[in-house]
């Protein structure tokens, strides 16, 4: 964007078009609440610091997921860079509805983070969702670096077909009985060996709630088909850290805008 801007300084119309596109993109995240949250430095993004390990929870709401996605992806990306180093406390990153966020070069994280004692959870309702933000190649790169996979019930036929192929085939013996008619009728048995899929596509359409078919990288079993017990625990109301008014949020927002104009 910046390169295009400098190359087009001779054309006022082109400059106006670039600035308009840039302003339109930035306006989606120019929200006072986002400015306020990102203005402080209370949270150390080096979450797995051995001296003070921290749990950071980020969330959004469905109606504003596209608005908050860039800010959330930025926080996660910066935190991962600080965490993904040797000598840190063992930790985990859990991304629920992961395809809604596009984290730059995320396909490189699981492989390198594993050696630094970081477990990566990339959770999605369907593999197809990953194509929206990362593209098919990017999605496949991420899946290739995740060594342990758990697959639950799906409704998309192409996804079920892909899951079925991923688990390969097995050899199965079949015995058939034949009988010849007539006065000297007799019967016989024929054994045959056939190669069939370990899990048919229909299997992934029929899984119950909480039931998964999985592949484990390092464990006492390589594959499993099991149903997990529902985790139940009473919810605890989170404490109020700080009571902030809309006026305070707006003041911080306006100050940041003012400081930015002074830089320009």
The proportion of residues in beta strands is 15-25%
Under CATH, the homologous superfamily of the domain at 28-147 and 233-263 reads: P-loop containing nucleotide triphosphate hydrolases
Q: Helical element count?
A: 9
Cα shape: elongated
CATH topology name of the domain at 28-147 and 233-263, in short, is Rossmann fold
Main sheet attributes: strand count, strand direction, barrel closure: 3 strands, antiparallel
Terminal residue distance = 18 Å
User: How many whole angstroms does the radius of gyration measure?
Assistant: 27 Å
Give the gist of this structure.
By secondary structure, this protein is α+β, with helices and mostly antiparallel strands. It contains 9 helices and 7 strands.
